[in-house]
Amino acid sequence: MRTKFIQAAKSPHRKCALHSLVLLGLAASATAPDKSSANGFLLPNQDPEAIARGDAFAATADNPSAIYYNPAGITQLSGENIRVGLYMISPGVKYTSPDGATAKANSDFQPVPQVYATCSLPNTPISLGLGIYVPYGLSINWGDNAPFNTIAQSGNLTYVTINPVVAWRVCQTLSVAIGPTINYSQASFKQAFFYSPLAPLGQFSVKGDGTDLGFNAGILWQPHPMVSFGINYRSPTSIVYSGNSEFSPVAPSTSTTATIKFPQYVVGGVSFRPTTNWNVEVDVNWTDWDTEKQIVFNNTSVGDLALPLDFKSSFTYDFGVTRQLGKGYFASVGYIYSQNSSPDQNFTPLIPDANLQLGGIGFGHHGQRWDWAVGYQFAFNAGRTVSGNANPLADGTYRIFNNAFNVATTYKF
């Protein structure tokens, strides 16, 4: 039976610090953030210095988080570096139906750790890096009584990446890098359903996990001290989740699988530094969401169920400015415009996608042994009105305002 689920290193004697990164990564409990979405469920916010600059960092990439933003940038770092960061986000998603009913998603802060380490080998053009971070994430809980609870009540996606990279300084002005990504993900989803006039409300739930391999690569070219160009590419991955689903209380749990396709994306940027005190950068990010048409839950107790998405590829435009303040201190501001990827017809409150305006601000310090940075970011959409949805319960206006903070510190050996 098949049914359609509608909208449902300085000293040569010292080892590189990469082994320390693995221990830190295992100690950190990576959780998926509550994320008010644009650009699907991509989570590009991986470091406070970048966040403060509107994530315009591909052509700068001058701290260990370059492993994510542009791994070729780690050739700019001498010796050994370990950077540990924590990203905290609180969503603000409110829904108003055409007849005035309202709902609000849970807005608790959720933590997401990031850990990076780099090692530039002495007397060689080679640098090594290892990062542990969360490039995709989604966690939203509308509660049990939202007007669209038969479409979605809650969903959670955690996607953790371990990313070793090798970077090569080809010449004084050009560096290239590549590395595999080892990806582990967990996902869960809940939705109400009607099963009897006398006891009408039950719950469908599914949970599973899986792994896949991919890679990321980067190029950093600085033909002039005032100008640099950066390109970062991340390959697509496809994770097959194995777990269980249940229609409670009318059907027992069954072994279920589902596949989510995570898109390839490419970021290109140019950095202009009119003086040593200023850095202005513009980046463009293209994400290939066209591959994500639907998520099929295979072998539930009533057969295969489909969650249509029909995502469209989208662009994100990043702009950032950093000013050096002297004595190692700096401040940054940034702006992002992020296109949504979800058409009205298949929009789901599980992924409240909308065009977002994002602003960032931050400051920090670069020292001899220690660096630190703090960044703040907000995301805003005055209201996306969905109409003509395949399930009319999803029609209505979704308003977004969320807050996010990121802090990080680097120790240099």
What does this structure look like?
The chain has 413 residues and is mainly β. It has one domain: Outer membrane protein transport protein (OMPP1/FadL/TodX) (Porin, Beta Barrel). The chain contains three helices and 20 strands.
Quick synopsis:
The protein is mainly beta and 413 residues long. The chain has helices at residues 18-27, 48-52, 66-69; strands at residues 80-90, 93-96, 102-104, 110-120, 126-141, 154-171, 174-194, 201-224, 227-234, 237-248, 254-262, 265-272, 278-287, 294-300, 303-308, 314-326, 329-338, 356-366, 370-386, 396-412.
Quick tags:
disordered N terminus, 3 helices, Porin
Helix/strand layout:
Blueprint: H1 18-27, H2 48-52, H3 66-69, E1 80-90, E2 93-96, E3 102-104, E4 110-120, E5 126-141, E6 154-171, E7 174-194, E8 201-224, E9 227-234, E10 237-248, E11 254-262, E12 265-272, E13 278-287, E14 294-300, E15 303-308, E16 314-326, E17 329-338, E18 356-366, E19 370-386, E20 396-412
Antiparallel strand pairs: 1-4, 1-20, 2-3, 2-20, 4-5, 5-6, 6-7, 7-8, 8-9, 8-10, 9-12, 10-11, 11-14, 12-13, 13-16, 14-15, 16-17, 17-18, 18-19, 19-20
SSE order, as H and E?
HHHEEEEEEEEEEEEEEEEEEEE
- CATH class equals Mainly Beta
Report the count of strand segments.
Answer: 20
The chain-level structural class is mainly beta
Mean pLDDT across all amino acids: 89
Shape: elongated
> CATH superfamily membership, which one?
Outer membrane protein transport protein (OMPP1/FadL/TodX)
The CATH topology is given as Porin
What's the arrangement of strands in the largest beta sheet? Answer: 1-4-5-6-7-8-9-12-13-16-17-18-19-20
